[in-house]
Amino acid sequence: MMSRLTLEDLGEDIICSNIAIHLSPADILSLALTSHSLFDCLNTNDAFHLLYSKRFGSKPTPLNLVHYDWKRLYNYRSSENTKFFTWGSSSLGRLGYTPSEAPLDHVTKTGIIKNVHTPTNVSAFNGFVINDISAGGFSFHILANDGELYFTGASWKKSEDSMSTPGPLNSRDFALGGAVVPLPYGIHYLPPTPMPWITSRAQHHFEPVLPHYSRSAPNPNLTKPPEDLDWSSLNKDRTKKKITETNFITKLFLPANDKFPSRRIISISSGREHIIALDNYHNILTWDTGCRTNTGVHLLFDGMEDYFISKISAGWNISACYAYRVGIIVWYTRDPVSRESYEDGTTQAKAHYLIIPGTDKGRIIDFHAGCDFVLFIKDNGQIYCFTIEAHNWALSNGEYVPEESFPVIKFNEWLLKHNITSSVKSTFTKISGCYHNFAIFTSDGMVLLGNKESFSDEESNEFPVLIPDLQKRNISHVAMGDYHNFALTDDGELLVWGTESNNCGCLGVGDKDVFLRENLGLDIVSDLGHSKGMKILKPQVVRQPTTNGKWLAVTAAGWQSGGIYVSLD
């Protein structure tokens, strides 16, 4: 008689790649506590790579995926000692605080409007694990460990009158009162009271009548290394700490829907005036210029109800997602939320979308949505571009026919020459960017920069741009604002270069006059004039907030920057 096969007999590789991959981080750690053998299987570097990806996503991604110490990185990110820092333009409270709340030596000394030139802690998030951060044109967006989403500043959009893609262009969502407040969760609840504007938000904040959905108690094991796991804590109820909202930190809400119990956000991405999120049911939600409340809109993609969406990317004025065997889906506008959907609390709207031709076959390694374009890497390691005039498409009523994507010749030819001259078999692996600009990574540690002009097939030596200080330096992520850029290394070092417009402080290198004086004659920085900022010509290290620590994540957009930092003092 054959002996009965148990879960523990399956082996580390099967348990990690075939079972744990389908579980939540909390369930993975719960499984690890069921036996010593399962603990050993799920206490490996591969298991912590999986845990990290599930909790914190793919940005930043270390270059060496196999030999990187994923357990250490996971423990850094899971530590309650991590802190969120912002710097740059203080317009409309986008930094999450006012300059008067920042240390005096962090604030610009010139000009009527004071900005922040040195990374400054947003204290409301201290003591909380942050799963992800992203930056839009006018705010930061922070995804907390419990799946709740917050934004900084007055709004995620430029003004209440803004109307831009991928939001609706002809009309806004239905809402009673029209102020940016949480929606009611059914017609039998009282309608929301209009929210007073920014000066009194903290004193007059309105919560929903009922919570959006119930959640299990937080699992403290998620913030501990394996050797310190509290085996007895899994079933204990704990009072969950809440992030404190302020005049410049506001919580966003999910629509109610009985089909999706215990709904939470697992991934976010930001455009100029919109935010998109992926929930744990792989639905997409959006907050855009059509929204008149702080409750997100559940996007409906006709014909896509049964497909698995694995990744999202918010472009400057479009958004995109990837579904296996469907391809890259690009939406450029949506219907407004109807009165019926508003009153039943589901807050749904149909997305107007297309599928990039040819992306349904093979595997898409990575993709990035920009301004009227999407870049993507196919499984042949080459990069391609798809262009779309979003505003015209949004007004066309489906009369346009999508063009075919095309190879980005300058970059693909560079890769071919690089492989020949360096005797390597390198491929493109990852894309990041903002607006017209982007960065492309290779498997052997090269970082290539480009912009929309790179798509031209005219002969030119201008693109791709390779900055010597970024090559073979284990760069894990590049974040870009309007005119400034950051590169994060595997070692937690943060590099910056580009333009600081109008003394906005977005570079994060401290007082302009001091920085110019310290680097006089070194061909590192140029002065753009009084109250006009400066331009850093070569990547420079952003000073750490403490004497010993690491930057773990970075984001940038517009004239502001932000990062997650852990102190090791």
Overall, the morphology is globular
Low-confidence stretches: 179-219, 230-239
Helix content: 10-25%
Question: Helices and strands: which structural class?
Answer: alpha+beta
Protein name: Piso0_004326 protein
InterPro entries: F-box-like_dom_sf (IPR036047), Ran_GTPase-activating (IPR051553), RCC1/BLIP-II (IPR009091), Reg_chr_condens (IPR000408)
Pfam family, one: RCC1_2
RCC repeats: 82-146, 436-491
Task: Outline the structure in words.
This is Piso0_004326 protein. The structure is a single chain. The protein is 13% helix and 29% strand. The protein is of the alpha+beta class. The chain folds into 4 domains: 71 residues, no CATH class; 117 residues, no CATH class; 227 residues, no CATH class; 123 residues, no CATH class. The strands form 6 sheets. It has an 8-stranded mixed β-sheet. Strand 25 and strand 26 form a beta hairpin. About 9% of the residues have low confidence.
SSE layout:
Elements: H1 12-19, H2 25-32, H3 36-41, H4 45-56, H5 70-78, E1 82-88, E2 116-121, E3 130-135, E4 140-144, E5 149-152, E6 249-252, E7 265-270, E8 275-279, E9 284-287, E10 297-300, E11 309-314, E12 319-323, E13 327-334, H6 339-343, E14 348-355, E15 364-369, E16 373-378, E17 383-387, H7 390-394, E18 406-407, H8 409-422, E19 428-434, E20 437-442, E21 447-451, E22 475-480, E23 484-489, E24 494-501, H9 512-518, E25 525-527, E26 533-541, E27 549-557, E28 560-567
Parallel strand pairs: 10-14
Antiparallel strand pairs: 1-2, 1-28, 3-4, 4-5, 5-6, 7-8, 8-9, 9-10, 11-12, 12-13, 13-14, 15-16, 16-17, 17-18, 19-20, 20-21, 22-23, 23-24, 24-26, 25-26, 27-28
Helix pairs in contact: 4-5
RCC repeats: 82-146, 436-491
Pfam families: RCC1_2
GO molecular function: guanyl-nucleotide exchange factor activity
